[in-house]
Amino acid sequence: SQTIHQWPATLVQPVGSPLSLECTVEGTSNPNLYWYRQAAGRGLQLLFYSVGIGQISSEVPQNLSASRPQDRQFILSSKKLLLSDSGFYLCAWSVLPPGTANTDTQYFGPGTRLTVL
Amino acid sequence: AQSVTQLDSHVSVSEGTPVLLRCNYSSSYSPSLFWYVQHPNKGLQLLLKYTSAATLVKGINGFEAEFKKSETSFHLTKPSAHMSDAAEYFCVVSEGGSTLGRLYFGRGTQLTVWP
Predict the structure, then answer these.
(1) Which range among A55-64, A89-98, B78-87 has the greatest average pLDDT?
(2) Is B39 in the A-facing interface, judged by CB distances under 8 Å?
(3) pLDDT (tens digit, 9 = 90+) per residue, B50-71?
(4) Cα(B86)–Cα(B100) distance, rounded to whole angstroms?
(5) Most Cβ neighbours (<10 Å): which of A34, A67, A114, B83?
(6) Rounded to a whole number, what is the distance in angstroms from the first to the last CA of chain A?
(7) Which DSSP letter does residue A96 get?
(8) Which residues of chain B lie closer than 8 angstroms to A46, CB-CB?
(9) Where does chain B show beta strands of DSSP type E?
(10) Between B36, B44, B96, which is nearest A103 by CB?
(11) A40 close to B (CB below 8 A)
C-alpha cells in the first residue's frame, strides 16, 4: 500500500533562517506531488505541484521554492523565512496521469507545523 | 470557475444525534467532489468521493453525502455522531478533465461533539 511521509513534524525557526521540508511517497511510481499551506483560520492554498522529476509548477509568487530530485521525493525550501511563512504545510500525492477523464484523488501526508518567530 | 462554499464554519451536536455539514459548489465542468476530515495537527483523510456515478456516496466511519446537481450541493451526513467525529471537515471540488486534478477547498467546518 502507498504511504506518504513528511518531516519534520514540527519546526520553529527564526525570521531570516533557511527552510527545508521533505516529503516522500512509498508504494507508487511517478506520482503527481503537491505542496499546500494551511494558515490559521484559512483554507488550504496550493503552493507547488510536480508531475515528474525536475518539473515544478508554482501557484503563487512567494519566497518559497520546491524541488523534486527523485521520483518520490518533494522538497519545499526557503532561503530566508518570513513571519508570514508560519503555517501547517501539507504534502499530497496522486497517481492518475494529468489529462485523464477521471479526476485523480489526492492523498495527504501528516503535515509539518512551521512557526517562524 | 470552480469554488466551494461551506455554509457553516462551526457545527455542534450531541453524541448520538445526526450530523449535517453543508456544502455548495460551483463548477464549469462535471465536477468531482470530495469530503476530507482533519483532526488537530494531522493531515487530511479522505472520507468519500463523488465522480458522476451514484449520487449517494458512502464513505468511511458511517458518513455519506448526496450529490444534488439541481441544488449544486454536496452535503455530508451521519446518522449518529461519535465523540471521535470531532474534527474539521473540508468540502473539495476538482476540475474534471483538466490537465491536473486541481482541488478547490472550502474554508472548513469545525464539528464539535458534546457528550
Answers:
(1) B78-87
(2) no
(3) 987 788 999 999 999 999 989 9
(4) 32
(5) A34
(6) 38
(7) S
(8) 102-103
(9) 3-6, 10-14, 19-21, 23-26, 32-38, 44-50, 56-58, 64-68, 73-78, 87-94, 103-105, 109-114
(10) B96
(11) no
